[in-house]
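About this split. The held-out portion is used to measure sequence recovery: a designer receives only the structure tokens and must propose an amino acid at every position. Recovery is the fraction of positions where the proposal matches the reference. Here is one held-out target exactly as it appears in the evaluation file.
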């Protein structure tokens, strides 16, 4: 938001660009664009971003956040739109040194080079501390009016926000699931156990309790009605859905290769039974079925917490 304001002060027209993937959405950018009164393009970056998350050239940050590759990808996509939007350069709100790994001097240079638009990436908040860009050399923007903010403190940014009358702005952290600890543990588990994973697997990670029954088979148990419905929607034809036959309780997905699925039905049903109303019963009838297949039944003894604990992925 501040970068936009700094450019606008120089009489430059700004078009906002934001991205969506299963790991983050566009709501904060939409709110910001509304406050700034600028047009905003929202681009679905899912496929290209998943490739970067799976194999980041420059590695991960603290969790599974491939921030350097992610920034480069976002800038590349923005650059690819220059002609279509009759725009001349790309600008970001990055601040030198704000993030030790992904926004140090080397990382900012790397992001620019890897984006494929070297010389065309202006960072108005730290511009004076970075090499002059083409827009500065060409006189499209005045380098003297760019700022020299660096480091982790946000004091100057907060003062600037006040100066520009920006009252509401997002907190520095948050918004990307790849930087959240529990999500990262779950995603790493998927990365370590599955070769082909995509949007469905990522969406599944946002729902329920996840339990690893074997290197290839996992169980996901809903925690409330909303999650139960979501699990039913996310179940693939080859998955098994499990529920109590008579008592109220969660829906669970048993996902794994066909050859070992049968081996885990009893255990998965017993775990699912533990989280339902019938958990105190000595024995409980559970049903299981493929999303559009016939219902089968099995009698189980609800699992004990000490049996479940070591299986939880969190
Ligand atoms: S925190 Fe998430 S969205 Fe932001 S740069 Fe890193 S990976 Fe990309």
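Reference sequence for scoring:
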């Amino acid at each position: 938001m501040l970068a936009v304001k700094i450019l606008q002060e120089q009489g430059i027209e700004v078009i906002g660009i934001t991205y969506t993937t299963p790991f983050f959405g566009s709501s904060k950018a939409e709110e910001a664009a509304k406050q700034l009164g600028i047009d905003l393009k929202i681009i679905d970056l899912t496929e290209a971003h998943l490739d970067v998350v799976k194999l980041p050239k420059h590695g991960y940050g603290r969790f599974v956040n491939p921030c350097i590759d992610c920034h480069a990808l976002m800038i590349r996509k923005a650059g690819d739109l220059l002609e279509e939007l009759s725009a001349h350069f790309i600008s970001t709100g990055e601040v030198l040194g704000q993030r030790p790994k992904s926004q140090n001097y080397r990382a900012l240079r790397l992001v620019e080079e890897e984006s494929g638009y070297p010389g065309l990436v202006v960072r108005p908040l730290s511009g004076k501390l970075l090499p002059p860009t083409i827009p500065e050399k060409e006189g499209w923007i005045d380098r003297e009016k760019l700022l020299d903010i660096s480091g982790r403190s946000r004091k100057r940014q907060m003062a600037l926000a006040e100066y520009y009358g920006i009252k509401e702005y997002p907190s520095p952290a948050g918004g990307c699931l790849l930087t959240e600890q529990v999500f990262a543990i779950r995603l790493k588990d998927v990365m370590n156990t599955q070769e082909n994973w995509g949007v469905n697997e990522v969406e599944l990670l946002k729902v329920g309790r996840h339990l690893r029954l074997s290197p290839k088979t996992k169980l996901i148990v809903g925690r409330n009605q909303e999650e139960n419905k979501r699990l039913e929607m996310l179940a693939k034809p080859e998955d098994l859905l499990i529920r109590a036959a008579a008592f109220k309780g969660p829906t669970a997905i048993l996902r794994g290769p066909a050859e070992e699925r049968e081996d885990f039905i009893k255990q998965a049903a017993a775990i699912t039974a533990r989280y339902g109303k019938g958990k105190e019963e000595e024995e409980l009838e559970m049903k299981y079925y493929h999303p559009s297949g016939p219902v089968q039944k099995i009698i189980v003894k609800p699992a004990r917490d000490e049996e479940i604990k070591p299986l939880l992925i969190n």
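Annotator remark: The pocket of iron/sulfur cluster is lined by residues 24, 65-67, 70-71, 176, 178-179 (CB under 6 Å).
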